[in-house]
Write a structure and sequence with these properties.
- Helices cover 24% and strands 23% of the residues.
- It is α+β, with helices and mostly antiparallel strands.
- The strands form 5 sheets. Strands 12-11-10-9-13-14 form a 6-stranded antiparallel β-sheet. The protein has a two-stranded antiparallel ribbon with strand order 1-2. A two-stranded antiparallel sheet has the order 3-4.
- The N and C termini lie far apart (85 Å).
Length: 213
């Protein structure tokens, strides 16, 4: 009868340990809560949809304040979007529609792959890649006073930030940031266009527009 050498025994033990470890690693997630499965997959758990989603892009201001962004690809009104955003919570931080108060934040949103609707194909041509949405709601409105645009959600409401007055020929207030489509928006084109949204097409420069609810 052939006897195994010491090296053969060590090899067999090594293979057994590696196989056993691989089986355990493969089976453990099946017994974990979904939140932990998300963590192991480097994703976050969305409580509303009860599923794992890619981690949200995060922008950090100079004062250390962090902003997380999620694009919800659903065709809903500003009112519903605002309500849904307010009911969201991420890492203990209450949600709200996006407020864009600086060029740096605007550029961060433009360059976040999780938020962009366009990408380039192998020929370098821009193509639509992320669904049907052409724009997304932002937390700006002049519903309280026509032509006086304010951030009406999030921490900006505590400071009562008014950032624009008038239509497309208007002007910023106290040098507050805005990114309206040049010389066109806001226009209140259909009476009641009291809510802001941002284009998701890069050829439009991710500009803002006003729209009805």
């Amino acid at each position: 009868m052939n006897r195994l050498t010491r090296d053969q025994i060590i090899t067999i033990i090594g293979i057994f340990v590696a196989t056993f470890t691989a089986v355990i690693v493969a089976l453990i997630p099946a017994f974990l809560p979904t939140q932990w499965k998300c963590f192991l997959r480097n994703r976050y758990y969305d409580q509303e949809y009860q599923e794992c989603k890619p981690k949200l892009p995060v922008f950090q201001e100079n004062n250390g304040c962090k902003h997380y962004y999620e694009l919800v690809e659903e065709d809903i009104s500003w009112t519903e979007a605002n309500s849904r955003a307010n009911n969201k919570n991420h890492r203990g931080i209450p949600g709200h529609l996006v407020t864009i108060i600086s060029q740096e934040e605007q550029e961060f949103i433009e360059n976040s792959q999780n938020l962009r609707q366009l990408d380039k194909n192998n020929n370098g041509e821009e193509v639509f890649v992320r669904g049907k949405l052409k724009s997304a709601w932002i937390g700006a409105s002049d519903a309280r006073n026509e032509g006086i645009w304010q951030w009406v959600v999030g921490p900006e409401t505590e400071n009562g930030i008014t950032f624009w007055i008038g239509k497309s020929d208007g002007e910023p207030i106290n040098n507050e940031y805005s990114n309206w489509r040049d010389n066109i928006q806001p226009d209140n084109g259909r009476e009641g266009e009291d809510y802001g949204h941002i284009s998701l097409y890069s050829q439009e420069g991710f500009k803002w527009n006003d729209n009805d609810v």
